[in-house]
Amino acid sequence: VNTDRSLFVFGHLATPEHLAAEARKAATGIFHGAQIEPRDPAPGEAVEVLVDAGVQAAIDSLCVRYSTNGFAPGLDSSEVAARRLGARWDDLAWSYLDRWGATLPPQPEGTTVRYSVEGKSSLSGRRIFANGASGGEVPEIYSYAVDCYTTPAWVDEAIMYQIVVDRFFDPDTDFSRTPATRDEEYGGTLVGVTERLPYLEDLGINALWLTPIFESETYHGYDTVDYESVARRFGGDQALSTLVREAHVHGIRILLDFAANHCSWHNPRFVDARRNPSSPYRSWFTFADWPDRYDTFFEVASLPRLNTHRTEVARYLYDVAARYLSEFQVDGFRLDYALGPPLSFWSGFRTRTKAAKSDSYTVGEATASPRGLRDFEGRLDGCLDFPLVQALRQFFIDRSLDATAFDHFLERHNGFFDPSFSRPTFLDNHDMNRFLWDAEGDTRKLKLAATCQFSLRQPPIVYYGTEVGLSQNVGVEDGGLDASRLPMLWDGRQDLDLLGFYRTLIEARRKHPALRANDRKTLIARGGVYVFTCHDDRDHVIVALNNSDAVQDVSLRDVQGIDLLSGIKVSEHIRLQAFQSALVSIPNYS
Amino acid sequence: VNTDRSLFVFGHLATPEHLAAEARKAATGIFHGAQIEPRDPAPGEAVEVLVDAGVQAAIDSLCVRYSTNGFAPGLDSSEVAARRLGARWDDLAWSYLDRWGATLPPQPEGTTVRYSVEGKSSLSGRRIFANGASGGEVPEIYSYAVDCYTTPAWVDEAIMYQIVVDRFFDPDTDFSRTPATRDEEYGGTLVGVTERLPYLEDLGINALWLTPIFESETYHGYDTVDYESVARRFGGDQALSTLVREAHVHGIRILLDFAANHCSWHNPRFVDARRNPSSPYRSWFTFADWPDRYDTFFEVASLPRLNTHRTEVARYLYDVAARYLSEFQVDGFRLDYALGPPLSFWSGFRTRTKAAKSDSYTVGEATASPRGLRDFEGRLDGCLDFPLVQALRQFFIDRSLDATAFDHFLERHNGFFDPSFSRPTFLDNHDMNRFLWDAEGDTRKLKLAATCQFSLRQPPIVYYGTEVGLSQNVGVEDGGLDASRLPMLWDGRQDLDLLGFYRTLIEARRKHPALRANDRKTLIARGGVYVFTCHDDRDHVIVALNNSDAVQDVSLRDVQGIDLLSGIKVSEHIRLQAFQSALVSIPNYS
Prior knowledge:
Two copies of one chain form a homodimer. Chain A is of the alpha+beta class. Helices cover 27% and strands 26% of the residues of chain A. Chain A is built from 16 helices and 29 strands. Chain A has a seven-stranded parallel β-sheet, with helices on one face. A six-stranded antiparallel β-sheet of chain A has the order 24-25-26-29-27-28. In chain A, strand 21 (361-364), helix 10 and strand 22 (382-383) form a beta-alpha-beta unit. In chain A, helix 1 crosses helix 11 and helix 8 (311-326) packs parallel to helix 9 (343-356). In chain A, 52% of the residues are buried.
């Protein structure tokens, strides 16, 4: 069961075959990845650069070359010799791995340290540079920024809402029409989003994540043809300006979806790189055999990979992103496939975007294990919490985790990350089955899971339509990912009971800072019953979840309060129906 | 390539699917295995018992209950609370794992500490005992012996020879006959082995490992029908007595192959356990559903698993083993499928067999990673070195490791184990393709690999027939494991050049303690050329290997010596033909 859910949420990335293939690749060479300690270096802190070396690399010395002057380190840069910290056997790699560590000196605030890692074997005379998964003959330039950026304060209070723009609304389009095909351009626009701002404000939303709006050739927009223009079919630049301005009036921030890893093969730069042998854009892509073989996103020929290792490519993308922040006043970015570009790209991205707008937010989409997510600490403000969505579904849909195990997971998971690293929560998104579909339409389970999601410290994201019972006609396993992106329901098909519930839940979270606080204490976690308290200085809420199909009587000694969801008074005891939840607010708390 | 060889030598045990399945199973509960520090506790040393607990176990306390009075720990035994040492994310398990540690007090020599491990969740009220891979409702009794046993000194100088008894020799059988089927009883006997002792002595062998000789129903004998009788077809008890007596006269020790994990379904105890509802032997086996569903060796119905967790079963097997040592004067045991019985079984086995014969030797067959082998430290004198045979074949057959990487592996591998833990080396055995078969009959490569094998500190094993060029007619991947167990060559088909080489090589190892010494220093390890020195107080040999198809001129500055393999004088330089090796002895070394 565990394995199945891993497959679902993480795709092939969590399969043992894939994990072993990656580990065995790494063991043939030297592997750095992003292993630095501390992960987010502060001014004045020395930084340990850690490297693993496999048997086939067979190195007996290792050094780190670094620069702080803005240029890549060269032969005249400072060098630090690494110490061999020991050897271990690794089952996944099926190899002994040596661990090496080199200590780079502290730096003042604002420094970007660029470095490369070189191993040597005195026996073979071979030199090998850390480079991608297994090392090679060309050094990769790694970097970290010594800064004091923090996640903007507004994110703590954010209630986010994800919109697939083509599928949300347009005033001139009939949204009651059944889509002809799952991947047709249905007709949603930014004008439509603007028109529905009152709906969103009424729901209680204060941040929107829009799937890509740049010029592209598919309804979903992840194939950018022109980063510098808002798609005409969405209303163009003007529509974005209007939306941002109006949204801000309604107290709603706007996050754009930015796909930096790859673009469309009809992007003029790629067209030129393929057509013109002396194209200045040839180096923007990686041609294994020009012009027809090139790096792509997962072997999709129409999605060539941008070479984000290169300075000019990074600078271009940074400029584009900065312009949307400064000219259009958007509030940040959801960064598509953040595992693709190197971490040094993201360090630079954050530096540049914070300079353009100091309270902008950068959150990565990295479908990775907790270890993989943690690599982004110090590079981005945060990452979408994929391990959590897996655990939420294991508890509320599969029930392969019981309340005790789910609570145990939450404790470890929260303890694993730096508290300042933002991990927005979600029950589903456009790349997986909707929660309601997998819960077989049982809105009780959706409400229950949402109550839990809205009682965790990290900001919640609602996938458009969830609040009105939008589901699917077919599972993504049969219908492809488009199956979970049906048009928004605007007519009588809306589940108004569910909508009312979501309004109440969002209002509860906005009014009760305890629900967003770090101070959580488990009272009951047994079988399907999960009860915990949330505290902050002024506020106290008891969250009670009945993840079972039986009525549960929960004793709450000395508690006098009111259930924010039902409005009913609670006195020392609460009765929860099957799959029912309660948020018991305790007044006069001090 | 790495993966393919893993599959070959380790079967499914090294596949990512199997490793992940085991790890994910462990993560659903609590897992102790054999994790104690130190691994081989000496008198007066405190012992740290280490336990991993997965998210689904969700325990928040853990204790170890132990006894030293010879009985299993009970509720009135001493208890030590464990400390939570931290949480980590484990990719293979795809779970957070908590690590717990409990410190048991030091004990005097001769104590056997028996203990059980119990985790509790205060939230669910659930108790879970460490038990097998994932824990359960019944405590497993673990144990360690506080003793000062050492591997007998004779093992250091042993040159071992593995004989599949049915396939080696009998004076009344025609050994030139082509076998009718690969699994027929061909006719080899212990009388035959005795008759060939002069051949073996002449070869230079001083220890024999005989595949199982107890009463059984297959030619190979791994299905024991009666542990207490030597098979009549091999000559019965009398033939064993004679063999041991004669072998000792020739300076050759005898190791028996002991399969404790499982027996034949025609073993009378199993027959009784299945037939008789009140059989005293029912508890000797594990019936999922009596009488037809029972634990077996890898789902083979004819090989029921003995319940070696039970005291009476262990006592019986210990008695049997001790009797062969004391009555028959055999010198030790090769322990079949040592991964099957619990480690506590092996602790007891060693204690009992050392008591029966203090210089007896116990070596386990554990087809496991280095980590898995290391679990046997403190339990057995040693284990057959499967990771090494994989690396030897990667270097000398596949060439997926070059000399630099092979040397790197050897250094890590030797550093990974306690030096006192014995790890006999081999190029092949009865459960895999013969080296010569995989080397496509190229005896140059066999000689080269054998030179390397015989220059390592650990005792070498020669698989019968290797020294005269015995190979196969078909690979084990097509013909099954029987394919590598053809009858010994006794006639004109013997490769006398190879035989002469093996005699010379064995003589060199016996005369030159440097080749068995720990003090190895690498001079050259590059591409196919691998040169290292071996030292001891009085002796100095340079080992030079050319694992390439080109002539190699190797410069040996200041060296004046003689190549023990060719008899040629060496002065500052040696020329090695393709796949040739040399053992350059340096006289007057001080």
